[in-house]
Specification:
The two termini are 24 Å apart. Helix 9 (233-251) runs parallel beside helix 13. By secondary structure, the chain is α/β, with parallel strands linked by helices. The protein contains 13 helices and eleven strands. Strands 1-9-8-5-4-2-3 form a seven-stranded mixed beta sheet, sandwiched between helices. It has a two-stranded antiparallel ribbon with strand order 6-7. A two-stranded antiparallel ribbon has the order 10-11. The radius of gyration is 20 Å and the shape is globular. Bound molecules: pyridoxal-5'-phosphate. Residues 53-55, 79-80, 82-83, 125, 147, 149-150, 171, 173, 185 line the site of pyridoxal-5'-phosphate.
């Protein structure tokens, strides 16, 4: 079976991590600080704080903006439940919006219709490594958290995604663009004040005052592993784009809708649309030995029992979108086999 996603781990990652084990310091944070500085520098953002997941980074970002029960948070429906969880942690109200047809990203028209006096934050994910059109969301006087969990290294108009919003979050989960030993995350901002506020919230031990604090810290071995992965990010992205280019070249006449091939995209996912036949398409590919998947397991409006009629594009994506294997360690023979199998499946199904 060709796996849908896979972390790219090599000896360097392992050796860098062993070094930290040998130091005997697992929770002190010199290596974690180094990862924070490296990410901030790479992205061109002033301040960064490492966490144990993307979800906790998002939770902290929402707390830092003072979010609470009276506030509404705008999010797309076509995203993982982690985003919804973070909003519910602070007790705010999620306002779920439809997406754009071609990019799978949050629809500006839908956001416009859903903005109210209570809108306190817009969370803007860059889905599947394709930058959202950030510019139009910056027009409002509403704080933006960029969710870059799937888009480390992607650029929008030549500038790193994550550097536009008031805050941005990243995930280093096992199968994300880079990983910090399976779980991890980061929150960044040009406001050093916000990041200092967040640091105070996770620095929980031996404090003179008591407020609710959060043990969301990253460990030293995780950070060492992450630094080694970050070194290879340009190479990872190059490989992803190369595979996406190969798929695009070979699948253009297969009868599928292919993903946008835009400057700045990093192809965290390669998502094709199958005219409402995602489930059947996936089953056929699975039988042929390819682990294809729905890129979003179930849209949020379906979990929340909202009217499907208000989410036509998300519904379309849910029924049509199929994510094919794409990752730096995918071999040329495997990519070839995937192309042949997808073509065969198209002939049978479409
Ligand atoms: C993975 C992901 C998250 C959550 O990150 P975790 O590290 O799994 O908590 C949030 N948003 C998006 C868009 C993601 O893909």
């Amino acid at each position: 079976m060709i796996r849908h996603s896979k972390p790219a781990i090599d000896k360097k990652d392992i050796q860098a991590t062993i070094k930290v084990f040998n130091s005997g310091l697992l929770s002190s944070s010199t290596v974690v600080r180094r990862l924070e500085l490296s990410m901030a520098k790479f992205l061109g953002i002033k301040a960064a704080l490492a966490t144990n997941s993307g979800t906790s980074a998002l939770h902290l970002a929402l707390i830092s903006l003072g979010l609470g029960r009276k506030d509404e948070v705008i999010i797309p429906s076509y995203v993982c439940t982690a985003v919804l969880n973070a909003i519910n942690y602070v007790g705010a109200k999620p306002v779920v919006c439809d997406i754009e047809q071609d990019s799978f990203n949050l629809s500006h028209d839908a956001v416009k219709k859903n903005i109210s006096k209570k809108t306190a934050v817009i969370i803007l994910p860059h889905m599947f490594g394709l930058p959202a059109s950030i510019g139009q969301f910056l027009e409002y006087d509403i704080p933006i958290i960029e969710d870059c969990a799937q888009a480390l290294g992607a650029t929008y108009k030549g500038k790193m995604v994550g550097s536009f919003g008031n805050l941005s979050i990243f995930s280093f989960y096992a199968t994300k663009v880079i990983t910090t030993l399976g779980y991890g995350g980061m929150v960044l901002s040009d406001s050093k004040k916000l990041i200092t506020k967040i640091r105070n919230l996770i620095d929980y031990d031996e404090r003179k005052d008591y407020i609710i604090r959060y043990n969301y810290n990253m460990s030293e071995p995780q950070a060492a592993f992450g630094l080694s992965q970050l070194d290879k990010l340009p190479e990872f992205i190059e490989k992803r784009i190369k595979i996406a280019g190969f798929y695009n070249e070979n699948l253009y006449d297969a009868g599928l809708e292919l993903p946008l091939f835009e400057d700045g995209a990093i192809f965290y996912r390669y998502v094709v649309c199958t005219k409402g036949k995602a489930d059947k398409f996936i089953k056929k590919l699975n039988v042929l030995g390819i682990e294809a998947k729905k890129p979003v397991f179930k849209p949020l409006h379906r979990y929340l029992g909202l009217n499907k009629k208000n989410f036509p594009t998300t519904e379309y994506a849910f029924n049509s979108a199929v994510s094919l294997p794409i990752y730096p360690s995918l071999r040329a023979e495997e990519a070839n086999f995937i192309v042949r199998s997808v073509k065969k499946t198209c002939e049978n199904l479409l």
